[in-house]
Amino acid sequence: MPDKLQYNPQELLLRVAAGDEQAFHQLVLRYSEKVFFHAFHFLKTWHAAEETTQDIFLRIWQKREKLSSVEDWDKYLFIVSRNFLINGLQKRAQSFESTDTWHSLAVSSNPADQFENKELGALLEKAIEQLPEQKRMIFRMIHQQGLSQDEVAQSLGIATRTVRWNLVSAVSGIRDFLHRHASGDLFFMLLFVADSVRRKNFLQ
């Protein structure tokens, strides 16, 4: 019987799909480094990349029946890893969403989370402060004071469509600022929050 290390990728996938734990172990040995560096490119921290790599392979094992129909393993692994990373970052970003997301972030009893929240809040505040005066004022009136676009328009004596345009422009400016000053998972979390706010602006 040939050594499992000699199996080609397709044979290995079929064995894993059939529930062969030793074959899965070989799959992890062969490809965990590739997944790790993909995760590290996203997350920028060694520990987070290690944990995410484990979670990705756990997901692959849980969905192993799909492997029997995979034709391009490298492409499949890349897509699974990318989607897992993006979904994870989106879920983390969603945990910060609230009616006053841009004013104060959720407080956690975990010191590491508290540090991250402070960093998020500081970057968001800097991003808002760098906006032109009218855009900054409109953004704060809506996302910190809780006013509607119509209420802001009436208060400032401008058209509602002008308020909406300023909001869209403000979020675009915030995105640009985050792109220049945030990195790794922090950037993607903030970017997702910014996109969520942009969608809400269009729906109002």
Notes on the protein architecture:
It is a single chain. With 204 residues, the protein is mainly α. It folds into 2 domains: 89 residues, Rna Polymerase Sigma Factor, Chain: A, CATH 1.10.1740.10; 69 residues, Orthogonal Bundle (Arc Repressor Mutant, subunit A), CATH 1.10.10. Helix content is 74%, strand content 0%. It contains 9 helices and no strands. Helix 2 packs across helix 4 and helix 3 packs across helix 4. The longest helix is centred in the first third of the chain and has 23 residues.
Q: How much helical structure, as a percent, in the residues?
A: over 70%
Structural class: mainly alpha
Coarse shape: elongated
- Fourth-tier CATH superfamily name of the largest domain: RNA polymerase sigma factor, region 2, helix turn helix motif
Straight-line N-to-C gap? 66 Å
- How many helical elements? 9
Can you tell me the number of structural domains? Answer: 2
How many E-type strands?
A: 0
Keywords: Sigma factor, Transcription, Transcription regulation
InterPro entries: RNA_pol_sigma-70-like, RNA_pol_sigma-70_dom, RNA_pol_sigma70_r2, RNA_pol_sigma70_r4_t2, RNA_pol_sigma_r2, RNA_pol_sigma_r3/r4-like, WH-like_DNA-bd_sf
Protein name: RNA polymerase sigma-70 factor (ECF subfamily)
Domain RNA polymerase sigma-70 region: 27-93
